[in-house]
Amino acid sequence: MGPSSLRTAGLVEALVELGHSVADMGQVVPVPGPALEHPNKALKALPAIAAWTAALAEAAYQISADAMPIFLGGDHSMSAGTVSGIARRAGELGKPLFVLWLDAHPDFHTLDTTTSGNLHGVPLAYASGLSGFQGYFPKLQANVSPERICALGIRSVDPAERVALAEAGVTVHDMRAIDEHGIAPLLRAFLERVAAEGGMLHVSFDVDFLDPAIAPAVGTTVPGGATFREAHLVMEMLHDSGLVTSLDLVELNPFLDERGRTATLMVDLTASLMGRRIMDRPTRSY
Ligand SMILES: NC(=[NH2+])NCCC[C@H](N)C(=O)O
Ligand SMILES: [Mn+2]
Ligand SMILES: [Mn+2]
């Protein structure tokens, strides 16, 4: 329902109004795989998510050759496919891939460490090449280097994730860091790294990055998220950087929305990322 809701809220129209040409590629179709038995009995919908991951990785790899793909979810397990597919493309282009993970959660579980069994909790670990997916998820053709990942807005981390993030060397800017330093300097430092290395930048935007007061339509709300102004600032800085090459919009659940306000906000934030601005700015400000 998430993609339909984003379309209904006018995503395509907003992009066209900004001068972009948009091709709606419709739905990715997964090919069902065999039933899979895993020692972690908590895992939910493992064969289905493995099939989605394979189909999305292939779609992301293909589309990223000549367009800026925007992937509409669906829950965040989608990004196991999109990030790994983009990583394969980046590898072929000989460009380092960076990932900005906008989320309340790092989604850095493996199939062995998740206790909820919800596979939207694992995509970043999978796309980073962590072990513990072999034989269940598609074999990774390329991964994103964990040192090139920046997770921003984090405020709910499980114990196993905390350990794995530190071991892997992921940059985590939690809400405390945002409170203390402001969101702009943290993002600016990351964008400067991407630019210095001539990298591609994939942005994975989970609705629960936002404060539930402005974005209620998500199943995993956590209080104390990014404000309306912080979120638009992030999007505007990303636009000004000229570095973003692909985007995920995930976790929107319209059944939980109030008069479409979350869907509308996600469309408006995407518009900011794609060039909508209040006033023209004389110089780049990131
Ligand atoms: N994409 C998300 N909303 N992820 C939430 C994950 C929450 C928790 N860490 C879990 O693994 O169950
Ligand atoms: Mn997430
Ligand atoms: Mn989340």
Description:
The chain has 286 residues and is of the alpha/beta class. It is built from ten helices and six strands, in the order αααβαβαβαβααβαβα. The protein has helices at 2-8, 11-17, 46-63, 78-93, 123-127, 159-168, 175-181, 183-196, 228-241, 261-273, and strands spanning 70-72, 97-102, 149-154, 171-174, 200-206, 244-250. Helix 5 (123-127) links the parallel strand 2 (97-102) and strand 3. Helix 3 (46-63) packs parallel to helix 4 (78-93), helix 7 packs across helix 8 and helix 9 packs parallel to helix 10 (261-273). The protein is globular. It starts with a helix and ends in a 13-residue tail after the last helix. The mean pLDDT is 97. The protein binds arginine and manganese (II) ion (2 copies).
Euclidean distance between termini CA atoms: 35 Å
List segments where confidence is low: pLDDT < 50 over at least 5 consecutive residues: none
Enumerate the strands of the largest sheet in spatial order, edge to edge or round the barrel.
1-6-5-2-3-4
In N-to-C order, the SSE pattern is HHHEHEHEHEHHEHEH
Number of DSSP helical runs = 10
Radius of gyration over all CA atoms, rounded = 18 Å
Q: What portion of residues is helical?
A: 25-40%
Secondary structure category: alpha/beta
Bound molecules: arginine, manganese (II) ion
**How big a fraction of the residues is strand?**
5-15%
Say how many strands there are.
6
What does the overall shape look like? globular
- Main sheet characteristics: 6 strands, parallel
